[in-house]
Each structure stands twice: as structure tokens, then as C-alpha cells.
Amino acid sequence: MENISGKYSPARKVLVGLAAPALALGLLAGCEVEKTQEGKMPSVDVDVESGQMPKYDVDAPDVRVGMKKETIKVPEVRMVEKEVEVPTVGIDMPDEDGEEVRR
After folding, report:
1. C-alpha span between 28 and 52 (Å, rounded)
2. How far is residue 30's CA from residue 103's CA, in Å, rounded to a whole number?
3. Could you count the other beta carbons within 10 Å of the beta carbon of residue 90?
């Protein structure tokens, strides 16, 4: 979706910006992980003496948070419906037998 200047429209940039994280989340959340081997910690023999964390004296500022009424300029947005191409994502997940299932 290019505009007259040959650059992509802001709508396309927004759609791609939303689709990329959604795809990444779908790929991560849609994965099924199964442990196939137990882990084992290495055996280590260490002789150490206990340490001590440093002490600090901190003089932090006092912060006051509140609300007050102000008159400011804000943009008004007008929504219109427009037909555009949007990205789609299809994911084929393996079932318990290892065969792909289309979702």
C-alpha cells in the first residue's frame, strides 16, 4: 500500500507493527515443549567464607504526586471505514502423534 510519494502509508506501518508482535507471541505461545531428558547439576566441592554486603546511607528526595485541572489542546480524531489489506497468520501445530494440525 504505497502512497503517491512511493512511501508506505501510516496505516500499513501500524498494521505491520501490530502483526509482528502478534506473530511472535503466537509462535512462542503455540509451542508445545516436552522434556526428553532429566537435567543434572554438576558436583562441586567449594570451601568459602561468608561475605558481607556493603551498607549505604541514602538521602532520597520526597516526591509528591497529585492531580489538578488544566485546559490544554488535544487532537480530535475522526474515524472512517476504509478497505485495506491486512496481514494474516496461519499456524500448523503438531498433534500428539507428531502430525500437523491446521488451525
Report:
1. 41
2. 11
3. 7
Look up residue 100 and give its DSSP letter: E
High-pLDDT (> 70) share of the chain, %: 79
Q: Is 29 helix (H, G, I), strand (E, B) or coil?
A: helix
55-83 mean pLDDT: 90
Question: Which CA distances in Å does 33 have to 29, 38, 50, 72?
Answer: 10, 14, 39, 52
- Gap between the Cα atoms of 73 and 76, Å rounded: 10
Q: What are phi and psi of 27, to 5 degrees?
A: -70, -40
Q: Would you call 20 helix, strand, or coil by DSSP?
A: helix
Given a cut of 70, whether residue 57 has pLDDT beyond it is yes
C-alpha distances (whole Å) from 91 to each of 4, 23, 82, 102 are 35, 9, 28, 7
Q: C-alpha cell of 26?
A: 503466537
